[in-house]
Amino acid sequence: MEALTVHQLTKTFKSKEVVKQISFSLKTGEVFGFLGRNGAGKSTTINMLTGILPPTSGTIEILGTPYHQINSIKRRIGVLPDNSNYYNDMTAMQHMIFFSQVKGIPVRKDSLSELLEAVGLGEDMDRKAGQFSLGMKKKLGIAQALIGSPELVFLDEPTSTLDIESALQIRDLIGSLASKGTTVFMTSHNLDEVERICDRIAILHQGRIEKLGTIAELREAHNNRFKVKVKYRSGDKSRETIWLERIRQVADDVKRSEPFLELVVDSEEDIPWIVDNAVEQQVKIFGLEIEQPSLENIFLEQAQR
Amino acid sequence: MKGIVIREFFGLMKGIKSILIILFITGISVLSARYMSSSSLFAEEASNPETTALAGLSFVLILFGALFVFTLSHDAVNRDIELQRIRLLITKTSRTSVIAGKFVAIWLFWAAVTMISFVIVSAITRTFVIHELLYLWVYLAFLASLCVLLSTLVTHRTYSVILSVLAGIAMPIIGLWSAFSQSSPVAAARYVLPYYPMAEQPVLLLVTAVEAGLALAAAVMLFRRKEL
């Protein structure tokens, strides 16, 4: 079942089209990463999906409900908006109670405490938000998004402003949400994080989705080749030449600057073949580095277009 | 909506401001009730203790009600927009509920303030004139709805506080002028503002109630269209 379906979604501010006819869908229990440079339209999209901004055109269906009935399902979704602020005179727990009441969900202090503990605010739940750091406010934002165990959660930059330890904690939390069947739509600048957490990714560029798929699919589409760096030594120049000639049969971009050899192969299977041939020609291998295109490579290539 | 009402109501209630307002309104009400019952100037009114009992309270609120309500709650909506808290609310409940919650909280606060004053004045004068209190509540609903509309219309608090002071001063002046003058250029305003109904024709408070509803509906429509 689709948790979210977006079709030809467009947002125009005055005459500027910020989001341009994007379409995608999320399956229930999926973690979906939404990437893009600053100004690509990520937050505008998430704001449209959560009812903060009205779309200019296009259709959205959330949890099987048409967009114009979004008020009826707000209890079933959780949202961490970007640039949100809190009530300085209220404690973390008071915020949780307040937001539960606003959402129309019965207040259960024990489950609210659990949420605050899950985001790392267990010891600070009775401190006022006015004394919170940016990171702590972000954690409170994540906790409030999870009030009432929503079926679909929108997280805009959930780990920005968090320290490494807290970011890892939130990453685990998102993972556990997905394992419980919660669908997560998140934006992030941390590509490594997205690569680890997300089942599928969309890369937004100038308001359009340029790439969409699993990491493996994106790699495939990106020309999924392996960069290999070999550290070697050979006592016999003629044998070394034979070895290099054989390598050129399967590899491209062969660059030699002793003691290193750099090359690019299409298949992982070519790598042991290169090593076997080195042994055969009595070329000694001291080290081997293999690099696959990361999400960062894919993203950077997209961004440089 | 419940959470917004509770938060907004107690936000208004706590602090020295609300205590001072209650003391001011109750003090003036009691003093004026005592003065009217003993002064020869109000001999006619004094013969009817029911009239004098809440006259002071009504008098204070007619003169200062708009100023009090507007200046105290001019930022009921735009405060949350300016401080970037509104998104947390509208992603949890409907925009209509947000506006309705703000309105109910402001009205409840003033209903509570007048109730406290009413109880104290009634205890002192030993009279209980509930319909006067109901008239005041309709009048306060009108002011609360205008306040919410102003706060939705004007996004910046700096501007809304200036407008609230100006409106709080101008409204009773125009309202009372129109109420007691047949030929003034503002005479027509008596049917729009609640001062004539309050002073002379309580039945016209039905119009005031409808106006409050319209102002609230306008605030909801504006808020629904606002890009937050």
Task: Draw up the topology in text.
The complex is a heterodimer of chains A (about 300) and B (about 230).
Chain A: E1 2-13, E2 16-27, E3 31-36, H1 42-49, E4 57-62, E5 65-66, E6 77-80, H2 92-103, H3 109-118, H4 134-145, E7 152-156, H5 164-179, E8 183-187, H6 191-197, E9 200-205, E10 208-213, H7 215-221, E11 226-234, H8 237-250, E12 251-257, E13 260-265, H9 270-280, E14 283-291, H10 295-304
Parallel strand pairs in A: 3-8, 3-9, 6-7, 7-8
Antiparallel strand pairs in A: 1-2, 1-4, 4-5, 9-10, 11-13, 11-14, 12-13
Helix pairs in contact in A: 2-3, 3-4, 8-9
Chain B: H1 2-13, H2 16-38, H3 43-46, H4 49-73, H5 78-82, H6 86-90, H7 95-125, H8 130-153, H9 157-179, H10 195-199, H11 205-225
Helix pairs in contact in B: 1-7, 2-4, 2-7, 4-7, 4-8, 4-9, 7-8, 7-11, 8-11
Structural account:
The complex is a heterodimer of chains A (305) and B (228). By secondary structure, chain A is α/β, with parallel strands linked by helices. Chain A folds into two domains: 2-213, Rossmann fold (3-Layer(aba) Sandwich), CATH 3.40.50; 225-297, 2-Layer Sandwich (Alpha-Beta Plaits). Chain A is 35% helix and 31% strand. Chain A is built from ten helices and 14 strands. Chain A has helices at residues 42-49, 92-103, 109-118, 134-145, 164-179, 191-197, 215-221, 237-250, 270-280, 295-304, and strands at 2-13, 16-27, 31-36, 57-62, 65-66, 77-80, 152-156, 183-187, 200-205, 208-213, 226-234, 251-257, 260-265, 283-291. In chain A, the strands form three sheets. Chain A has a six-stranded mixed β-sheet with strand order 6-7-8-3-9-10, sandwiched between helices. A four-stranded antiparallel β-sheet of chain A has the order 2-1-4-5, with helices on one face. In chain A, strand 9 (200-205) and strand 10 (208-213) form a beta hairpin. Chain B has 228 residues and is mainly alpha-helical. Chain B is built from eleven helices and no strands.
